[in-house]
């Protein structure tokens, strides 16, 4: 008789464990004021522009590509369309049409 009760008890515990009906003790909850954590400030170095501002002021509509290249270094990239050509630098873009400067944007 005791043996049967023990087997039934163990079987019940095993079934509860499988089903998930066993009770779990809750974890302790920390009840305190939030701690002040010192923020880590990252220092960023600004990239140096690849041009001098006085050279950008020398740009004029109608300049040829060779005149522009005498002021600035080679562009980072050149994009072409059937009509236009775009020269991209780090801090500005130049727009050519028919081999002549038509516009620029200082970023």
Structure in words:
The protein is an alpha+beta fold. The protein has a domain at 55-106. Helix content is 27%, strand content 21%. The protein has three helices and four strands; from the N terminus they run αααββββ. It has a four-stranded antiparallel sheet, with no helix packed on it. It is elongated, with a radius of gyration of 37 Å.
- Flag low-confidence runs: none
Global structural class: alpha+beta
Number of strands: 4
Strand fraction equals 15-25%
Helix-strand pattern, N to C?
A: HHHEEEE
Q: Could you give the distance between the termini?
A: 90 Å
Per DSSP, the total helix count is 3
What's the helical proportion of residues? 25-40%
Nearest-integer average pLDDT: 80
Strand order of the main beta sheet, please?
1-2-3-4
Task: Assign an overall shape.
Answer: elongated
The radius of gyration computed from the alpha-carbon positions, rounded to a whole number of angstroms, is 37 Å
Give the biggest sheet.
4 strands, antiparallel
């Amino acid at each position: 008789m005791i043996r049967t009760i023990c087997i039934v008890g163990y079987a019940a515990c095993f079934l509860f464990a499988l089903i998930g009906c066993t009770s779990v003790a809750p974890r302790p909850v920390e009840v305190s004021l939030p701690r002040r954590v010192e923020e880590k400030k990252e220092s960023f170095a600004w990239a140096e522009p690849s041009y001098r501002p006085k050279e950008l002021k020398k740009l004029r509509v109608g300049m040829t590509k060779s005149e522009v290249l005498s002021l600035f270094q080679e562009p980072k990239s050149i994009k072409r369309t059937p009509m236009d050509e775009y020269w991209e630098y780090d801090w500005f873009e130049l727009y050519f049409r028919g081999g002549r400067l038509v516009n620029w944007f200082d970023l």
